[in-house]
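[step 3/7] inverse_fold.run input=structure_tokens len=346
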């Protein structure tokens, strides 16, 4: 099991859903209970708080009231696509989803829109615009980006529809969308006692050769082969499986360059799946700081074990798995979302 520690805990009522690293090392986080996009620098260490804790989170942007956020993916250097919709529990208002672009390229470090508004610096924030309403979607969850292709001039993101068991392909430059895959293996289960969500997370592999997916209801993790243009060209290959129920379910995940995947798994675990399908829980467990994990990403660490800024103890830089925990619980009381660091390499 890898060591892990809490990086930051949000106030009560803030359910963290997804995340994506920025080129400068900061990380963007989406909230499924508030219309907020946050940023935290995992290498910013407070001198007054416990080791590893950053000084604060920054509210990067507030989306329209009544909406909340789910998936996020990078579509260009420091430019991101975000899904915005109306969510509630395991449901969403059909037709409420829209894809937005958030351009962070000229945003100063530690930008907080609340402070900027008070100081009259709103122009320092990201450039944000709505691209398209995905009117036929039931519940858009994870997002991922197709890599550039020689014969495609537009930017394409793929979206997981957890209610309908579909993958949508959304063209950000033509503001159009289509169903890329409608597969019974992506749909929610008909069995009672399982989470009513089918496909949850999806990621295009760093090589661009595979589209990986999780299905929360059926407890499967698998992948589709992709063509050089980003089309699915084969059936789903199952790589890992758990016995899923209302408590135990795969959520979102990330894929390393060597094909190793890390899957956030309810109620309290992180599973590692190798390219040949070997799976084991590598962090978490009952009573741990990892509670209701929802997504994760891999980042390079600039902090030593124990909280000292700088290089790792071997003289190089370490690798961290940053995990979002939707909410926390203490003595039966629900708290805010939590960000946990799993120290893969130090």
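[step 3/7] decode complete -> sequence:
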């Amino acid at each position: 099991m890898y060591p892990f520690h809490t990086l930051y805990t949000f106030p009560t009522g803030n359910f963290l859903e997804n995340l994506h690293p920025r080129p400068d090392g900061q990380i963007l986080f989406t909230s499924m209970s508030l219309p907020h996009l946050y940023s935290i620098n995992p290498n910013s260490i407070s001198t007054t708080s416990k080791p590893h804790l950053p000084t604060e989170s920054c509210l990067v942007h507030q989306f329209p009231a009544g909406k909340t956020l789910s998936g996020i993916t990078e579509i260009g250097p420091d430019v991101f696509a975000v899904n915005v919709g109306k969510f509630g529990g395991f449901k969403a208002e059909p037709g409420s989803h829209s894809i937005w672009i958030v351009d962070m390229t000229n945003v100063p470090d530690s930008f907080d829109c609340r402070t900027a508004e008070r100081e009259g610096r709103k122009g320092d924030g990201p450039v944000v615009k709505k691209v398209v309403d995905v009117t036929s979607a039931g519940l858009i969850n994870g997002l991922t980006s197709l890599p550039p292709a020689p014969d495609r001039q537009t930017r394409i993101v793929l979206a997981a529809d957890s209610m309908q068991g579909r993958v949508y392909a959304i063209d950000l430059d033509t503001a159009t969308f289509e169903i890329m895959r409608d597969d019974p293996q992506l749909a929610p289960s008909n069995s009672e006692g399982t989470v009513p969500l089918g496909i949850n997370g999806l990621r295009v592999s760093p090589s661009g050769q595979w589209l990986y997916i999780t299905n929360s209801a059926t407890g499967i993790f698998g992948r589709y082969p992709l063509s050089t243009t980003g089309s699915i060209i084969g059936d789903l290959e199952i790589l890992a499986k758990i016995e899923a129920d209302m408590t135990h379910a795969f959520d979102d995940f990330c894929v390393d360059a060597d094909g190793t995947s890390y899957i956030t798994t309810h109620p309290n675990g992180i599973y590692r799946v190798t390219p040949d399908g070997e799976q084991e829980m590598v962090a978490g467990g009952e009573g741990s700081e990892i509670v209701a994990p929802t997504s994760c990403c891999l980042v390079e660490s600039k902090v030593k074990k124990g909280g000292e800024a700088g290089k790792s103890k071997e003289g190089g830089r370490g690798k961290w798995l940053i995990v979002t925990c939707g909410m926390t619980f203490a003595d039966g009381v629900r708290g805010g979302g939590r960000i946990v660091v799993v120290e893969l390499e130090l």
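[step 4/7] annotate
The helical segments are 113-118.
Residues 259 and 275 are 5 Å apart (CA to CA).
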